[in-house]
Amino acid sequence: MTNKDVFTFYNGVTIPRIGFGTWQIPNEEAYAAVTMALKNGYTHIDTAHAYHNEENVGKAIRDFGIAREEVFVTSKLPAQVKDFDGALQHFEETMSNLGLDYLDLYLIHAPWPWDEIGKDCTEGNIQVWKAMEQLYDEGRIRAIGVSNFAIKDLQAILDNCDIVPMANQIPFYIGRDQTGLLAFCKSHNIVVEAYSPLATGAILDSTEIKQMAEKYGVTPAQLSIRYCLEKDTLPLPKSTHEARIIENAQLDFTISPEDVAILDALKDVRAK
User: Fold this and answer.
1) Which region among 2-11, 145-154, 162-171 has the lowest average model confidence (pLDDT)?
2) Alpha carbons 246 and 215: distance in angstroms, whole number
3) Cβ(212)–Cβ(188) under 8 Å?
4) pLDDT tens by residue, 27-67
5) Pair 194, 238: CB distance under 8 Å
6) Which end of the chain has fewer surrounding CB within 10 Å, N or C?
7) Known catalytic residue: 136?
8) Which of 42, 51, 106, 195 is the catalytic position?
9) CA dihedral sign of residues 23, 27, 32, 37
10) Where are the domains of the chain?
11) Distance CA 227, CA 168 (A)
């Protein structure tokens, strides 16, 4: 599913193996952060309508001067939108915010509204997916997928779709490897994107991770992001500090299978 530099969706579209995440980056800071990422070689930028920073993410991409086809841009439909017409309307809002002609990847942000986590929105998700299939068929989006979908949520789409989701973006990091969900996605050729690969920083003070990072001559952050790649998932690290933006992409090392197994066994490594 992946070579050194990209993952490939089952429709043949390639996506750079590391994305620059913009969750929790305010709109007023997003322009500088995305510009720093592009300057330092990132060609995959991830945003969402709910992040309230699409305007400056898009402006940074346009102003940087990179050819549109050379940068992969992802955004997401707000989690509370669960109807066909609403999905089309919010897609147009996202495109207006970004100032781009097409999206590379569009995701349903969650299977339920964030203020009603766990609510059964199966029928709404099916309607939204039909809208995304339409946008895909029209050439407005190069790939479509979901985010935060569990197996049962994915199965409902699979049972009612014409186009199988190409990606599922989920929280994935050392101590939360979501083995069953990962296996299910792989069985359906769904690329898994790993958001919060550092658990929003909560795992970086782990003694075990620090010790292993020292063994490889890397930082705990680099080890944690590389772990996601070793698990055949696509990490989306985020930072507003240029040194860390650079560091997060310097992953030209491998973790031995034995050490991956040790990291797999760490189940309670978040900072207390």
Assistant:
1) 2-11
2) 21
3) no
4) 999 999 999 999 999 999 999 999 999 999 999 999 999 99
5) no
6) C
7) no
8) 51
9) positive
10) 6-201+232-251
11) 18
pTM of the complete model: 0.94
Judge whether 90 is annotated as a binding position. Answer: no
Long-range contacts of 88-96 (CB under 8 A, 24+ apart): 88/131, 88/134, 88/135, 90/49, 91/131, 91/135, 91/140, 93/49, 94/49, 94/54, 95/140
Q: What pLDDT score was predicted for residue 267?
A: 81
What fold does the segment set 6-201+232-251 form as a domain? TIM Barrel (3.20.20)
CA distances from 173 to 170, 178, 202, 226, 233 (A): 10, 9, 10, 10, 10
Structure tokens belonging to residue 107: 């995701």
Predicted local confidence at residue 175, as pLDDT: 95
Q: What is the DSSP string of 37-69?
A: HHHTT--EEE--GGGT-HHHHHHHHHHHT--GG
Residues 6+ apart with CB under 8 A from 139: 102
* Amino acid in position 160: N
Taking the C-alpha atoms of residue 236 and residue 196, their distance in angstroms, rounded to an integer, is: 7
- Cα(269)–Cα(55) distance, rounded to whole angstroms? 36
Residue pair 227/213 in contact (Cβ under 8 Å)? The answer is no
